[in-house]
UniProtKB/TrEMBL annotation, chains A, B:
The keyword DNA-binding applies. Coiled coil: none annotated. The keyword Nucleotide-binding does not apply. It comes from Streptomyces guryensis. One of its GO terms (molecular function) is transcription cis-regulatory region binding. Gene3D superfamilies: 3.40.50.2300, lambda repressor-like DNA-binding domains. Keywords: DNA-binding, Transcription, Transcription regulation. It comes from the Bacteria. It holds the Pfam family Peripla_BP_3. This is LacI family transcriptional regulator. Residues 1-53 form the HTH lacI-type domain. SMART domains: HTH_LACI.
Length: 332, 332
DNA sequence: ACTAGACTTTGGAGCGCTTCAACGCGCGTC
DNA sequence: GACGCGCGTTGAAGCGCTCCAAAGTCTAGT
């Protein structure tokens, strides 16, 4: 910066002003400085800047699973909203590894980012408490925080389950099954509550079976599908809710394509995420849509609110409502 | 830091040593300092650190399309490799927006990251030249750089096209079509060369038609699929190569599921990426696999090489070979 | 008892920037 | 001609850390 100042025949203070408060500098001087900057290829040092200001204009976003299109949607929404308020969005993928998640939280903490958006897969209270205690703001996405500990953007996951089950019931299915895994993951728990609520509401004519899968991915779904395919025909559910789309698609594949048990004729299937792949599968998947983009936008809004309002900030929870997307796997 | 030093009854220099050179500090002192750090909730300021050292231990990765599983694989591979050498990987998604891409390159440049991994969708020579001229190292992924301007990790995209076409020819298809868009995108150009090479090699018995799609996504693929479905039966190709999996899947959907033109019986289809969704589609997609993870790992290796070797560094290009994954849409 | 040498600890310089009080400088006013 | 005023500009303080020369402490050898 001194070099630029020398080259332009001004002081470093003036160079700084050209960069940060152009109005304070006469046009002629500013032009001279800008010319020197580009001639010398000067790049200001962000570290020094944020050392002085004590902050940055970056927001860190920590995602548990960048493979999942819901998380990507959230990132998209957050990016748009962040840019609109002059912040950059930096992404970090933890691949569901809590050690990595803690590392990234600490990294963002040490980098003095404006704030952190966290979309975890497990309870992360410890990490949140840690960086919040340093004054770093956190907004939690798709995972309910301990009450009063931070802002959050949630989907009404109970309603997700309810909508899924309700659609099957409304279309005449009476023997439902809910395929679930990872019941310690709070959105999963909520979805189950909704499924159960819908079934109870329907009265004794509708039954619910809960099928425990080992995990939430395709391979686990294939196992569940194979097990189902081996059942006696009248032991088969006629409506199936899978807690993730991936599970749903894998089950459909096994039933429909491998075992010849037609979907939706014999079994209707509903997923609970409406992932990117939902519409493109063997039998396009009816699924309850999670509004990822909006979630990301809301998260940035909450974060900037919190940063702006300082001490008198009150934590808020935004709960967005899901929407059923009807496709072939469980038609109207 | 001064507070910690006071609390532990030592100087700031010692606190710094506890954090950075623990071996230099006696165990008792170190313990006292650490206790003070956690009691006071001290978080070291990364900005000040990197101001002193002139560098960080973060690598920035700029991705053109985080929706595409190839890019996600690259991010995964890079993350693993980066962590193995003590670097954090920061992700940025440009969503194919060159303005955003330039912004992120500049952001990483100003942040003095160790280096930048760039996986673009268009020629990015200008941006690369800009930040390289400031001494920032860049490794280009899946896009050939101007010769000698930087390191890069590529896939032999010509061979991608070749493998795809060759597989169709080897399994008896004689009337091939290559569906392509975005021909200014260099990997796309390369793939076409490979397709043409395979067809020429096969001699006069095999013909190639090139079908221009408007874009690379599902909706564009649906249009192409509809157009194909309207053709007279003997005007239909019997082997189809789509430059992206998304295109391939959409075409299969239109042909097979909508128009009843069986895949692979009437038309065999091959994709060129082997995306995550390839195996889960209506007719599981035969595709040429791009080794994303390895690409990411190699990129980090090249970057760290370049950082370590300084002036005597010679740019290198790593070219990885693709592999055909045979599934139902174009069986053996 | 004295000292060389190894191990610890200290304190201050300096990283590159922003900010702000202070300082010109020209101009209109009294 | 002295004064006040606003605009541009300056120069230095200080952000929080790392690094290093120097000082301090301890042990063992003479």
């Amino acid at each position: 910066m001194q070099d630029v100042a020398d080259a332009a025949g001004v002081s470093v203070g003036t160079v700084s002003n050209v960069l940060n408060h152009p109005a304070k500098v006469s046009p002629a001087t500013a032009e001279r400085v800008r010319e020197a900057i580009s001639r010398l290829g000067f790049v200001r040092n962000d570290a020094a800047r944020s050392l002085v200001s004590g902050s940055t204009n970056s927001v860190g976003m920590v995602l548990a699973d960048i493979e999942n299109s819901l998380f990507i949607d959230m990132a998209h929404g957050a990016q748009d909203a962040a840019r609109a308020v002059g912040q950059n969005l930096l992404l970090a993928n933890t691949a569901c590894d809590m050690t990595l998640q803690d590392d990234y939280l600490d990294l963002f903490d040490e980098s003095r980012v404006t704030g952190v958006l966290l979309a975890p897969m497990e309870d992360s209270s410890a990490g949140i408490a840690r960086i919040r205690s340093h004054g770093r703001q956190v907004v939690l996405l798709n995972y309910a925080p301990r009450p009063g500990t931070c802002c959050s953007v949630l989907v009404n996951n109970e309603h997700v389950g309810y909508l899924a089950a309700r659609h099957l019931i409304d279309t005449g299915r009476t023997r439902l099954a809910y395929v679930v895994a990872h019941d310690d993951y709070q959105p999963v728990r909520d979805r189950r509550r909704g499924v159960r609520a819908a079934v109870e509401e329907a009265g004794p004519g509708v039954t619910l079976e809960e099928i425990d899968s080992v995990g939430l991915t395709s391979s686990h779904g294939h196992v569940v599908g194979q097990d189902l395919a081996r059942r006696a025909p009248d032991d088969l559910p006629d409506g199936l809710i899978a807690v993730t789309d991936e599970l749903a698609n894998a089950i459909i594949h096994q039933l429909h394509a491998v075992a010849g048990i037609r979907v939706p004729d014999r079994v209707a299937v509903v997923g609970c995420e409406n992932n990117r792949a939902a519409g493109a599968s063997v039998v396009p998947l009816t699924a309850v849509d999670m509004p990822g983009r909006t979630m990301g936008q809301e998260a940035i809004r909450l974060l900037m609110d919190e940063v702006a309002s300082g001490a008198q900030h009150r934590h808020a929870t935004v709960v967005l409502e899901p929407e059923l997307i009807v496709r072939a796997s469980a038609p109207r």
